[in-house]
Specification:
The structure is a single chain. This protein has about 170 residues and is α+β, with helices and mostly antiparallel strands. Strand 3 (about 75-80) and strand 4 form a beta hairpin. The chain contains four helices and seven strands, in the order αβααββββββα. The chain has helices spanning about 5, 40-50, 55-60, 140-165, and strands at about 30-40, 65, 75-80, 85-95, 100-105, 110-120, 130-140. It has a single domain (about 30-165), classed as Alpha-D-Glucose-1,6-Bisphosphate, Chain A, domain 4 (2-Layer Sandwich).
């Protein structure tokens, strides 16, 4: 896909940045997955570096075409599972001492409408490091609407693959 042309397109949903909020917007399917992926500063830095270089996506088996090797606001990324393209734009980046990651939103051509957040966080009290994936979405393509429960199961499986990837 032409990343420059995708950069000109609007996002396909209005609740931009909502995965950073405590409550996800109504009218969408919600998903949250997290798991402890290690402990300590070195593990946190390693996982954060992976997330900020599309490591969750690449490590989960998706093909990644991105306008930037490092995640930055407004970067365009097309992830593919097989023949299926899923174009997105990075809408925010988190770079704090104990949490790093980003959120991206769907562009036209994505089978869903919504946003997904990918972060690693460190618990300062225990040094435990966690990977987290949070999303809200609803079908944008006729076949994703028709696939209903199967699509939701696939999204949960991919979220677990993202977490294993870091």
């Amino acid at each position: 896909m032409d990343l420059a042309a995708l950069a000109e397109l609007p996002l396909t949903y209005s609740e931009v940045g909502a995965t950073a909020a405590a409550e996800l917007p109504a009218g969408y399917e919600h998903q949250h997955a997290e798991r402890q992926i290690g402990t300590g500063d070195q593990r946190f830095e390693q996982a954060a570096d992976a997330v900020m270089h599309w490591g969750m996506q690449r490590g989960s088996g998706l093909r990644v075409q991105a306008s930037s090797e490092v995640v930055v606001v407004d970067a365009i990324v097309v992830v593919r599972m097989g023949f299926l393209p899923a174009p997105c734009r990075v809408v925010y980046v988190i770079d704090e001492p104990d949490i790093r990651g980003f959120g991206y939103g769907t562009l036209p051509g994505h089978p869903e409408r919504g946003e997904e957040r990918f972060v690693v966080r460190r618990d300062p009290a225990t040094s435990a490091v966690f990977g987290e994936v949070t999303a809200f979405s609803r079908p944008a393509a006729w076949w994703s609407k028709a696939g209903g429960p199967v699509v939701r199961v696939a999204q949960r499986v991919i979220a677990q693959r993202y977490l294993r990837a870091v």
